[in-house]
Design goal:
single chain; alpha/beta; Nucleotidyltransferase, domain 5; 2 domains; 10 helices; 14 strands; 34% helix
Length: 380
């Protein structure tokens, strides 16, 4: 799902940049014969509040320093963003070319998506035939019966189609993703000011799915949930045989856990972050309380999916900064009622050339999924 189209051919090496709410990350990835190689990476923690705007000379300077830390001279980048206006939803169209669907949405987004997205850049991803109607789907369910659908914290939802409606059988199902033109243009302008040429700008929720499709082999009829826990945004992705069925974007992330610790213990933000990393017994109790909104959203989403489909979620995987903490995932899994496993994309990449830094790179793995996922579809 792109906001800017890449017109160049696929390449053997590519640069991915992930613009998060607390950190910006870069990853250079090379396609080898049998696997992908992480050539190099860079991570910068942003000053508080700077990423909320994604604009201005200060943000451009941070981007400049990020890429200056790389040995590669490549400045054409595939960029993924986790901005406050990000949305993903599912829609149905007659089987027409994607270009016609995009034109229709541009002219009348409210007519197709039940909301006016004229201030958004939108792009469309066509689901493979059968993806929106997995085998064994229960019939006669009300697709609007999701108790979490109207959650104030949920910004985008893609729901599965009712297979009982045979009159719609000729229609194709697509995912529509987007963000406001203001935020996307601000990102683009900052990148250009930093002498970075954005080939593509896409949503982090899509980038991590791209990465997961490569880094985690799927089984037939397998449904898994992939959760990407960012600083202030979490995507909850239901994947059937590796393809997305439902995607939710929730305004909740690791920063909310730190904010709660800071408020309760009257600590400065950096002190709260330090306590969260240590994860002592008392801090774990605070995290249990703070993480409950996310746990409820995940649980209700799973319950809704399994009611609507004669399929069972086999596993929950998590990536993102918070996924690097075994204690946080254990607390989340206990609250959801299902084990949550850390998915570390770096384990499936070649990082042998990092030598003594291997453990350090592996520790960053859950955080680098989006940056790596942004380039995977563009590699030959």
């Amino acid at each position: 799902m792109h906001f800017r189209r890449n017109t160049q051919h696929k390449r053997d090496v590519a640069l991915g940049i992930d613009l998060g709410a607390s950190q910006i990350k870069a990853a250079v990835v090379r396609r080898q014969t049998d696997k992908l190689e992480l050539v190099e990476y860079a991570v910068r923690t942003l000053p508080p509040g700077l990423a909320k705007a994604y604009k201005g000379p200060e943000f451009a300077a941070e981007l400049q320093q990020l890429v200056d830390g790389l040995k590669t001279s490549e400045r054409h980048a595939f960029v993924t963003i986790s901005c406050s206006s990000a949305m993903v939803c599912q829609a149905e169209f007659p089987p027409v070319p994607l270009a016609e669907i995009k034109s229709a949405l541009k002219l009348n987004s409210a007519g197709y998506l039940r909301r006016d997205f004229s201030a958004y850049y939108l792009d469309v991803f066509e689901l493979k035939k059968g993806t929106e109607e997995p085998k064994g789907k229960a019939k006669g369910k009300d697709k609007n019966s999701d108790p979490a659908k109207d959650s104030a914290k949920t910004n985008g939802t893609a729901n599965t189609k009712d297979s009982a409606k045979t009159k719609d059988s000729a229609k194709s199902s697509v995912l529509v993703g987007g963000a406001t033109k203001e935020e996307v243009d601000a990102c683009r302008d900052a990148l250009v000011a930093a002498k970075i040429k954005p080939e593509v700008i896409e949503l982090t929720a899509i980038s991590v799915i791209n990465a997961f499709q490569v880094g985690h082999p799927h089984s037939k009829n397998e449904v898994v949930v992939l959760i990407d826990i960012g600083a202030r945004m979490t995507s909850i992705n239901f994947l059937f045989e590796g393809m997305p069925l439902i995607t939710r974007i929730m305004h909740f992330g690791g920063a909310q856990l730190s904010d709660y610790i800071s408020q309760v213990l009257v600590l400065k933000p950096d002190e709260a972050e330090d306590e969260k990393r240590k994860m002592s017994g008392p801090i774990q109790e605070l995290v249990k309380t703070a993480i409950s909104p996310l746990a409820r959203e995940i649980r209700s989403s799973i319950d809704f999916f399994e009611r609507q489909n004669d399929l069972h979620v086999s596993q929950i995987y998590a990536c993102g900064g918070s996924a690097a903490s075994p204690q946080i995932l254990a607390i989340l899994g206990e609250a959801v009622g299902t084990h949550v496993e850390c998915w570390n994309l770096i384990e499936s990449l070649d990082i042998s050339h990092f030598n003594g830094e291997t453990q350090r790179v592996l520790a960053l793995g859950p955080s680098l999924a989006a940056a790596v996922g942004a380039v995977i579809p563009r590699l030959s």
